Records
---
Amino acid sequence: MGVTLSIEDLQVIYKTPDGTIPAVRGVSLELSESEILGVVGESGSGKSTLAFAIAGLLPKNAIVKARKFIILNNDALSSPNVFNKLRGSGVFMVFQDPFSSLNPLLTIRDQLAEAYVTKVKQSKGVKVGIGDVDDEELVEYLKRVNIPDPQITLYKYPHQLSGGQIQRVMIAMALILEPRILLADEPTTALDVLTQIQVLQELKRLVDEIKTSIIFITHDIALASAIGDRLAVMYGGLLMEVGNTEDVIREPMHPYTQGLIASIPSKSKYEGLLNEIKGIYVPTNLNECPFAPRCPYVRDDCKNSLPELRRVSNRFVRCHLYG
Amino acid sequence: MTLEVTVRRRRGWADVVIRLLKKPDVAFGLVIVALFYAWSMVEGVLQVVGALLNNPALGWALLPYNPFQPHLSQSLQPPSILHIMGTDDLGRDILSRVLYAAPYDALISLVVVGGGILIGGFIGMVAGFYGGGVEEFNMWLTDLFLAFPALILAMVIEATFGHGYIYAMIAMIVVWWPSYARLFRAETIRVRSMKYIDAALLSGLSRLEIIRRHIIRPALITILPYATLDLGNVILFYSMLSFLGLGQQPPLPEWGSMVALGLEYFPRWWWYSIMPGLVILIIAVATALVGDGLRDVIGGEERWV
């Protein structure tokens, strides 16, 4: 199995009129073919910025730094054109908000055909008009993601579809493009629980059928553990814990991971209040542990030095408790 | 079990027109606007052909009277069956003169709005799509033109370069494009932030294709209602220029200059200025109604249910 993505010490800083904001503060990741990595974190933890950095879709005011940033054997640090080269078959993304993922003025057919045409152009070097794409071909893709009445859906406009259906159309688009890396940025956040599971299953099928690797980004650790082979927990722009999903869920090591798992609602209201992680995220100094203000086990050294991401038994943890 | 499901393949323009006609006020406006432009086309073609064949009479072949022939015995007749809008100080039929002048207003409204969309669209879309220094410069230029009161700027341009129909047209395009530049920039920025632009980038479409397929159309469609409404504004503005003597030069009739000339005979011979003024008002209101209706119909198309 090949390595599709290899990042070392990736930093993304946003320049704003009020100063700079470090959104990602040094993330190292490696992703293999057909692997699903769940990235969990709350709002502002930098998980979406990480995804957009990998897709090369960061806004102009973002500065990207890294020791190593290799996507599909291309060095993304060498020039910004690397991302242009990857477009069409390298990286694809399924977005959080299904209702802005498709152009409201074009039918589903036209948008799938658009992807189909660029794919044909890239793989076979043949130019096909968007109007000339065979409908039956596109219907096949919709069938593969279990869209009901695909012939009819093909000629619908995005507003006539539900959020779950749109996400499935996006996955169908991924099936057409066959990207080596698929970034799923909270694709199920806007969906109800049953649709969530269906979309997860379509994503898993994608791995089986086109051997893509998926980075599944979510704030829901239960969801991430349902799909991910490995789990990465992010907080304050840093990876806090990375390991196999089984290990991390069974025996979370980092206090933040423990808090996340403890706060999964599992009790009825007669058994007492839900667990929560106290406090809210506040930006900290760069030389202290970002979770220190909320950590139940906080010690003096947490406020004076930022712990390293260290190997502890079967995983990596960033915490002074495991020094 | 078979279920009959019909899917409309396209919401075409026919559909938009049908929905416009369902609202009585918009239908009224649409009929007026359609009549105005249809008549202008017929009359305009006749005038051009007449000029080419050296037979200007063709220009008033369809009119009740010759709009240039004075009948001093008939001067300042009130509206009647013979002269629906009355006659002017030289006894010329006002209705004929109004109808003869229509193509000039129709043409200038289309050219000025079209020119505004072309120039403003280019400057605004480039600014919105590329951002940074390009945007700064384009918007600085736009603001520079917007800083002058439109009428004064148009008057200055005409005073510098010359009077007449063509000069009025040029002056008005210069005055008109900045508001379109702003609209197009705002629309481009809005559409650019949509995730489907990102998705299109990732699927390998080139920037040019993205602008062509995903930006021009939505931007144009949101601006279309405003542009329709703007046709009336152009006619009003052009009438204003002619009122001030900066438009069509006599003896050619023009709505605004007819109002201006008629004011000397106001209020006793009120129809001289009121009748052309009424025509300007009706056309302006009609375009505003259609523009408003279009915004409801097309605007709803893009919004999510």
---
Amino acid sequence: MTAEIGHFALVLALLIAVVQVTLPMIGAHRGNAAWMAVAKPAALVQFGLIALSFGCLMQLYVTSDFSVLNVVQNSHTAKPMIYKIAGVWANHEGSLLLWVLILTLFGSAVAAFGANLPPALKARVLSVQAMIAVGFYLFMLLTSNPFERVEVPPINGQDLNPLLQDFGLAIHPPMLYLGYVGFSMAFSFAIAALIEGRVDAAWARWVRPWTLAAWCFLTGGIALGSWWAYYELGWGGWWFWDPVENASFMPWLAGTALLHSSTVVEKRDTLKGWTILLAIVAFSLSLLGTFLVRSGVLTSVHTFATDPARGVFILGLLIVVIGGSLALFAWRAPALVSTGVFQPISREGALLLNNLIMATAAAAVLLGTLYPLLLDAIGGGKISVGAPFFNAVFIPLMMPMIAAMAVGPMLSWKRADLIPALSRLKAAAVVTAAAMFAAWAIMTDGPVMGVIGAGLATWLFAGTLIELAGRIRLFKVPLRESLSRLRRTPRASWGMTIAHLGVAVAITGITGAGSWQVESIQVMKPGDTVTVAGYDFTFDGARAGQGPNYSIISGTFRVSRNGEPVVTLEPEKRIYNVSKRPTTEAGIHTMISGDLYAVIGDKGEDGAYVTRLYFNPLVVWMWAGAIIMVSGGLISLTDRRHRIGAPARRRAQGPASVPQAAAAE
Amino acid sequence: MKRKHKRLTFVVISLALLGAASALIMNAFEDNIVFFHSPTDIIEKKIGEDRRFRLGGLVEEGSVRKAGGAVTIFRVTDLKETIAVSYKGLLPDLFREGQGVVAEGRLKGGIFIADEVLAKHDETYMPPEVAEALKKSGKWQGQDKDKNGASKKSKGAY
């Protein structure tokens, strides 16, 4: 019965979404307030129905109802409760339900809290949101129904892929989806603005919190995913430029660009068309990400078994959404007139540079990800484009941007002078040179990139601090006044400063782990000692054990440095009882200077084990940097101007005249 | 600057950026694209030793053995031709005899020296390249992941 209720709620939600697409849109066009008002209750009811549907699926998982195919394929009675719950979204059908749950949650949030939005804009935004929802409901009901029953229920399920039975991966998809779907709000606002033919500072302020929230979640989701890959795959790495990783990274690049360009729209009333385009691109790349992960067209470490019918449907959806929105953009964008004048050397010029580089980087990643598909489609042979390609393209693109990132915030709006800004950065240049020399002195044999990375991180960190010091006029005025300026700094500025510092910290980690990693693969017998980066790893043998639903082979490594014991690492190999699949749990000891990382492999004939030992310098800085970036985003989100709502639109027209304004363009 | 000049500046900067990016991409493509070959391809096309490529097929039953020093030797087959592979390191968790595998490296003296063996998250998943290579060699036995991935799962080895 539970499954049928969930299924029925999904069908009802589809019907309500169809109403929400049509009535408010027509109402907004004709200026019919009653029709526009339909959007609010429709969005709320839609969310209620999807929440009910999602609750039903969760109930089926918790009670292990094996008459439902989805539960049979992804659950087992012996699984710990947390992974029964996480199992709901750790599969194709369930993750789509999670996607629409978040979509309708955001839609209902606009409906409930968007009282200060002009009614016509609100109606159109909710209508566009419902269009996206209709696409996903149809996709689920036609190709991926999570509530499908099996004719003969088995006694037990087939268990969840053991790699996914992990806490990091239990919360990774919801985070990532909050990010992906968050961009749907920016998209809906962009489409609504195109239909209205108007983009102004007020519009940018409404869009900004959604973009910011989506960006925070996406940053967190990507960091979580990379952390999971780091400790669970046991390859010693944290980013593989895998198509699925790229799929989440491309919307992040576009979203970061959008975040910066929306500031320009808000402050300077220019870059409007570009911002709208970025909003469309960010969400399109999110959809593409879903397509890449779900359709299995690319060989990837993350790809799951798939059904081609779904791929065709998502491809169709992609064509409609991306093609439709770009066509609308081409038709309506010329109507968006910018009033601000634009000087190349200015804050907005620096933000535009950020945008150009971010967009180029996203395009390069897109090309590298899709090129194998294109070549194969035209019969050019099967190829793969791996990490070396992305490193060779992405890193040189990012270097000038990070260098410019320290300068940009010092430039004033409208018209700025580059010379004073650069002269303020003299101190940063000195510190940077010192850091590069130190990096070269310590790691003389390391790659050049290590020295460059250390320099860029220091430059950005110092430059950002100098900008903050300049803003509060530190040492120029009495300390007391500086502190009071510090207190009065808007939270949005704080957010920028903190996020940029986070980037600097993350670059430090990426540089350390990327350039100076030490790896050692060998066969070890109990009692053997191997020295990695000055740490002596002594293998004490392996023993067998039992986990809740798996058996363990756990190795013991005593690590010491110059005779002083540091830590004992216990990497595991787990064999899951139901699926008999093995997984690797790396033994990791995190220090500020770097991670000690041990993996135990197969046992040889003579009682010796293959082992893989790493020293990953500074790697924890990368995740620390990501956390700092997210906190910067969250602080910016609490800025006063988001809380008290956007200002009224500048032009004197009331909301009722909006349709005429749109028609008159 | 006049408006026209300003616009020109932006166009020039954008074009320069685009040009730089294209140059980077072309250059990176030249060096870093890795082709995929089946064992049959290697024999028929006489692939040389100078280029890295990906080898895909099934791990031949009974062919996996440990050589000293963390080196594993196995054979990859598309059920028509077979290539010996040598790999130093930890094999991925889902590496099994009779399963699909993709290895990256180069040929040396008729042996494929792999420096990377790709793992899959899901055992029922067959890399599309491997599936196609098997189909091409004409020995595909209808183990079609698209249609009966699920049923294979239930009647499989576990």
---
Amino acid sequence: MTTAKIFGISRHRLTTDGEGVTTLVAFSGCPLRCKYCLNKASWEPDKGRLYTPQMLFEEVKIDQLYFLATKGGITFGGGEPLLQVEFIKEFRELCGTQWQIVAETCLNVPFKNLQALDPILDGYIVDIKDMNPEIYKVYTGKDNALTISNLQWLLQHGDPNRIIVRVPHIPDFNTDEDVERSKKRLETMGVKHIDEFNYLIR
Amino acid sequence: MARGKQTCKILKEIRKQIAEENDIELVISECTYQGDCLGTCPKCEAEVRYLERELEKRQRLGKAAVVAGLSVGLLGASQVAMAQTPDTIPSRNDSIVDILDGYVVPKIQQSDVMLMGKIPMTSCYHVDPKRYRTVMDMFDFSGMRNLSVVGFDLESPDRIENVDTDDYVNVLINNSLTFYVPQFEGGESDLLEFISQNLGKNADGNAYGDMEVAFTVEPNGKLSHIDIIKGVNEQLDAQVAALFKFMEWKPAIWEQKSEDKFPFACQCVQKLHFPMITH
């Protein structure tokens, strides 16, 4: 039986993460260790409540009318949703094709995961951090080569309009010039939608 | 307009569009609640369930149910708009787990209660991860901050839904407030016993299904605004509603430093299952 730990479910998100009315489902477990991570509890794969795809579907389908009317659906975040391949595939079988399923991802996941999920995902919100490998490594503790190659593959295999890439200004880690360089490189790669924003440090 | 109220307004408009498009009679009354909310409440949820039932009826009669894409225009700020908007600042609204670090959990003593109330103060919850249930709370920290709806689950100490406020964690850690949800005298088992006994022979013995009764427990323990938001059948619904009119509950109370206890009005939803099994 496929299960996953989910540490949060947030309903009725209107503009935050995806089209229409969405419910954010946050998986536990993340490959990155970002210094300003808002959800540090998501780092641990064992934290959260254990769900089967059926349990999750039963819980979130109360908003089906809103999803259908607004072409919204589920945004899987986390943590890192692309680590939950079987769970999301089974969930898609339960919810059908009318719900939009979007992944809020760092893309720093094995390529086979992306390849397996791409046919059933409607969109991606990619948190790219910074395109500079050194900045990325200092901020996340990981290399970004996999992120970039996965993004490149996504851009070449499907409509680029299904991808939003978030480019943050990260205090003490990157500069405005770094952000500009990241944006330029992303545009060169074929990214159509860039969401530039500031991390708010509290 | 606070985020919750704005969400409520949009969701209400979506329901209205669905109803109009499908010739479903839906009277949407103005919400009188003054504080912020997370965009939904038992009354809003009941409207959604009603629409679902009406749409199902239409489909059974061979009529088309028009829903898909009906309200897309309402949400102009979609993915593309988001992508083009600079200076988007992530806030704690985007975070769910910040709150979990401190295991901030209210002490709740009753299962399956959906709670809404207005806490007229500027303090916060007490933490007790051992005892809590699924609950929705609506607060108004007037003049201080908006604190909206949180949900907790007994089985999972670190699951919180629908958290929507700023600086929430700090408030929770720095203050100590315990609040108690309304409770039938003797607890839930006594409530079920009370209902079962009083329905007695008049009850429809063949009735089967889940019922949800919405009501407000006033500070004096009397119940008001009783509404069967999910019914089983007309006769049983009326009988149960009549019973609730006679009940008295322990009101919701917030408590600070154990000596200050203040009852406040709370809106609740009690789930009942028929046939009732009582001990």
---
Amino acid sequence: MKQTENKQMDLLLGDLARRTGVRSVAPEDHSAMHLDADELNSYAEQALPAAARARYTSHLAECASCRKIVSELTSASGANVREDSVSQNTSAGFRQKFGALLSPSLLRYAVPALALFAFIAVGLVALRQQLQPDFVAQNQPAASRDATIETKPADSPAEPGNFAAAIEERRSSESQTRAGKNIETKAKTGEKSETSNTATPTDSVTVTSDKDASPGKAAGVVASPSYASEPAAPPPPKPQTTHTEARTEVAARRKEEADKRDEQAREQEGARARTDDNQNQIALPQAGRGALAGQSQERLRKLEAKRASDAGAKTNDDEADTRTVSGRRFRRQGGVWIDTAYQSSTATTTLARGSEQFRALVADEPGIRAIAAQLPGEVVVVWKGRAYRIR
Amino acid sequence: MSERSEQIQNLLVAGAKRLLAHATESRSLDSDSLVPRIKSSVDKYLLKDDENASDQSIAEFIDELKADDLCLIVACERGDESAWSDLVERFTPTVRSAARSASSNEDGAQDLAQSIWAELYGLRVRADGKPASKLAYYSGRGSLAGWLRAVVAQLAIDQHRKQSRTVQTEDDADFDRLARGGGDGKELFLATAALNPEEAISDKLAGAEMQSALARSIKELSDEDRLLVKLYYFDGLRLREAGSVLGVHEATASRRLTRIHGELRERVESTLITDLGWTKTETEGAFAQVALHLEADLEPLLAAGGAVSGAKVKARK
């Protein structure tokens, strides 16, 4: 109701102004009655005493001409006032700004928001702590982790803080003397293995030594016992016997090497048995993680065994790919036995086994006959500065 | 010299000394050179309304004067060339800006600005043989820049007045005619009244009587309220601008305007009921009817006003 009345009055006043306003704005020639420039400016700048101001207000209410000037001057001076107020605001002290931050209107929203944020943060931390063991337990036996261990056994940070660290801690607290003996034993083993030609025992000792030196590489501890318990590592028997039959010249030397390896394997087996015993004692109290560690160790054993067998096979392959016959070394490349002295620039004569030329050659050079007899298939042999390709 | 006059004189001298001490540049002026100017200002703005103003209020009034601006103007009046240079250098942009605001084109603005400097320098000579400079009217109460703007605005109005005596464009005449609604202020209601002639005549009369009562009611308002109504409705200022003229915040001006609406309505109703014998119901009905017509006719009226304004601007160009 009040609003309607206000609106009606607003419309009426607007209409009245449209009818009479322009006439009153029109310049009138009674300059003597107008305010002078100083009065107008003083009024616009609010610089007059109250009584004088009231006097001029009465005139301005009637005089459109003076009112117009005052309005313009107020607009101009009002800008200055706003600028002043802005500069005052910017120069307001830190106390005022800080007070504004702590104003009730702001705190009304800020406090609940902070409480909610704190609650969420605590919840996230608690959730993360709960999830962390599961995360380790789920990922420890995973294939990808195993693959990582397999490819980078020493550098892998897998499970550094759990049972490996516990092993280290327990080891240091329970049986320092025993551990010292173990270290000595391992060191001895390492010394011996350094003299060995096989790569696997050397790896084992190196990892163990690293573990002893720094707990951060304790993942290697997991690898070493599983590797140590694998007895299949040392001698690759079958290829060696085959070679012994095939190469009578190196048979004696091979036999000596085999004997040496057997001896080393027996020594290492003894040392690793002690290490296993030691680790089994450590692993027993860790009920929950023991099973996990057992699984992991079992898996690692298999992996290491596979790696060892791969390494052995590779060694055999290397040996199978290279042969020495009649004092000459031959390398097998693409099914062809090629003399290591052979160069592509060497003049080559191609012969077929059983051909007239072949028979004539072997009749003159019995050494070539021995080579052709021991190396099956195609052979390239350099003989007296000339190469012969025998097919 | 009476005791009071002597007391005031002492206050003026002491005040002049304080002003010179506060001034950034006193321009070699002494207190005697400032006292006449200060006395004029105190008489005009303080003692005229309150002859028995306290010493403290007089001292405060003097201390609130713009010391630097006052010293500059007094020095200029005394023929200090360096003061003149400073005045021209510092306030030429202000004068140009004010002249542009008051003029419709750049040439007119330049002429106006030149006229201002001539007026200030006092090229005209008074009856006593001294130059009739406008500088003599600066009291130091407001800023010198604001005073210069006011001088420019007044001079522009004077020039416009002289021109409008001889020439009135056709557009201006049309605009005045439209705004006045033909002179009697009744066509608006008639144009939109009901088709029934009796109702149309009735509305016309009611509207005229209401307008008359409203005009009288406005005159009965207090000076400040009347000024607010004039600024807002008659001069077309926004509430913020109108509030600035009155020295109040926009929100205060809005509340004051709402109160004025209520007061005016009461006065109009009282006039219509008491003087013209209307009933309360008739008064309320008339308000509603007139407001309805005005609301309906506002759009075409504004459109017509806009068209005329456009034509006026074009004619000026």
